[in-house]
Amino acid sequence: MSQVAIIMRSMNEMPYTKQVFAALKEQTFQDFVLYNVDSGSTDGTLEFVKAHNPDPSKVFEILPSDYVPGKVLNDMLARTKEPIVVLLNADAIPMDAHWLKELIDPIINDQADSTISRQIARPDAYWVVKQDYERAYDPRRFKDGYLNDFYSAVSCAFKRDLWEETQFYTGGYAEDLAWSRACKAKGARFKIAPESVAEHSHNYSIKGLYRKRYRQGVAFGYIYSHAPSGLVRAFSCIKEIARDLWIAVTHGRFLTIPYNLLYRLVIYLGYYRGNCEGVKKYSANTDASTGL
What we know:
Layout (H helix, E strand, L loop, with lengths): L3 E7 L5 H10 L6 E7 L6 H8 L6 E3 L7 H9 L6 E5 L4 E2 L4 H10 L5 E7 L6 H10 L18 E5 H6 L9 H11 L4 E10 L6 H19 L5 H21 L6 H34 L2
Parallel strand pairs: 1-2, 1-4, 2-3, 6-8
Antiparallel strand pairs: 4-7, 5-8, 6-7
Helix pairs in contact: 8-10, 9-10
């Protein structure tokens, strides 16, 4: 039996999927089985995956309407047997031949129960998006490499035993953060593997950005069962806008300022509204379960 299962999720990921498959072929660590799940691609992604997965029986299709992140991950994990599981989005491109080895080494050497890659934004990413990625993966955020309240399933690895004990949250989005939080509460060790690097970012439309952050806000509100006050959120938003403005001005990126401002406002508005909705959902479910 192979040592690693790689689960790759996709929906209209061209042309990145071709680059991801090419990178997998170049990995120095090759003891893995690739599992694909596609949720309704219409751009050739599914056909490419079927043609290039070494075992077509490991390619699965679901309807777009059936895509609930945590449920899909749980269903796919149930199909695997390998002791280490790697999740890799079909648009997250490993940056060198050592991506996989660097990602799983801390697990093999029992230094961690789960790891994440360092992500970098694409060359064509909006300036403010690149800034956010650099801050998110700044080594100073991680004490001795260990993760606090941070996790991403875009490119990650974990012991299968970890999932068998704690499965992914299926109530909505932010399934990766909810899962890592539940595992850490039981003592699991989560680390970043800084030498395992994947390129991944999106230039969302304003509508798409709002929808993404709203969904995350709903999930976070439900998972954490509380929402920060509007005043606290507004203060945080102003701080980030001021920081974005300062960096843009000091780096001569004046033309980015209008979009930077809109980007930050949409993120905070979407997240705050979703957060409040998630708390209402949590309260309604709690009341229903207690009969109040």
